[in-house]
Amino acid sequence: MTDKRFHLAWFMNFTPDEWRAPFGQGGYPWDGQFYIEMAQTLERACFDFLMIEDKLMVPETFGSDRKYSLANGMMAPKHDPAPLAVAMGMATSRIGVVATMSTMAYPPFMLARLSSTIDSLTRGRFGWNVVTSAEDLAAQNFGMDKLPPREQRYEMADEYIDVVNKLFDSWDADAVVLDREKGIYADADKVRSVDHEGKYYKVRGPLNTVPSPQHRPVYVQAGASPRGRDFAARHADAIVSVANGVDGMKAFRDDIRARASAMGRAPDEIKVLFCITPTLGETEEDAQAKYVRETTSDHFCNDVLASISAITEIDFSLYDLDEPLPERLETNGESGTLDKFQQWGSGKTLRELAAAQGGGLVSSLELIGTPASVADKMGAAMAEIGGDGFLLTTPVLRVGRRYLIEIADGLVPELQRRGLVRTEYTHQLLRDNLTDF
Ligand SMILES: Cc1cc2nc3c(=O)[nH]c(=O)nc-3n(C[C@H](O)[C@H](O)[C@H](O)COP(=O)(O)O)c2cc1C
């Protein structure tokens, strides 16, 4: 019998929690406790990993001002994902923790050392969401006026990954001998310099951390442009994506697998996970009413537009809410998210586009219903796509305990009853759980 199970992961932002909604009441997320409980809840539901988004600026594209972002707690404030990943990882034992870190921001040596340290602290459950940054505003915090063009960012990132891989390989797995009799901690013959001198980076090495349980973190990537997809297909263990419906998801996954094969990789080594944001209710009508209520509020519409503005550097406040977009928009930033959002040719007004994102900022599939009916739809979609799972994405960047419980204690048990997701972890290492099926 073929294994019909698929993977579940969670995408979150280290930003204010659901401070505005009646069942949110906000907390003080900055001490990490709210998010630590989130990790524990998702571990109870046997998620593969949770992934912490990151951006390195206070957005000011929407309305050419940082006022909206700050007044609404929308993508700002935002705290550093690496220490949160450690806190979450040390309060759990099986779920993977993935932090976003930009190749623009960290020198490769620092990233390799940090990742190796967190992988050891979490006993082999760390992942790195590899991003190249997508905003001039972020570049301006790192000594540049503008972000390099996409092609060059990926060229730099290819070399960057080459360097960090060399650093992870600079210690043999058995380099630590801990021989008390001979008085040897590490065998110097098993630790080498890397002496990398490339177009963009020059690094001597070796790394000064011991080999971590996974040797290197799980690499997660979200390339969407042709160049980005090649990058992801070459390096990633997991690819996260937004796509349009079942056909769009199948086409994206098939494309990634073909690119991976052409590069000599086994496509099954790569898990492709699609963003979804289910809206769950006690009954179908209840869920529908909730969806309409939530996605047609002015707050929702503005929050979606402000977020899309921030990650594409296109000011959506300049367009009429009740007209279709006048032209197909392009960005040097997050192209996949923009394409999914603008649904070019659909004739929808901007307000309709914001409401049509499936309950999240972008969702690959509209999922509205009872836990049982949504579980059926997820199972049917995955059967058609061929794999590999879903990335449950925080509803427009804010989440409260209630939504988490609906997923972990409502939806997941329905999926488990259908044999669609795991009921217990088989392995200790994140990579092993990801490749288990
Ligand atoms: C689910 C998902 C999560 C992403 N998370 C981040 C993030 O945390 N930080 C970031 O700078 N970019 C993030 N991105 C953007 C991607 O890294 C990438 O730039 C984008 O998908 C566009 O692909 P392209 O660079 O090939 O055009 C994310 C994209 C997706 C689809």
Automatic annotation (TrEMBL):
Q: Where does FMN bind?
A: 54, 100, 154, 225
List each copy of the Luciferase-like domain by range: 35-388
Question: Pfam families, from UniProt?
Answer: Bac_luciferase
Record key words, sorted: Flavoprotein, FMN, Monooxygenase, Oxidoreductase
Q: Which GO terms describe its molecular function?
A: monooxygenase activity; oxidoreductase activity, acting on paired donors, with incorporation or reduction of molecular oxygen
Task: Please name the InterPro entries in this protein's record.
Answer: Diverse_substr_monoxygenases, Luciferase-like_dom, Luciferase-like_sf, NTA_MOA
Q: Which family does it belong to?
A: Belongs to the NtaA/SnaA/DszA monooxygenase family.
Q: What is this protein called?
A: FMN-dependent oxidoreductase (Nitrilotriacetate monooxygenase family)
Gene source species: Salipiger aestuarii
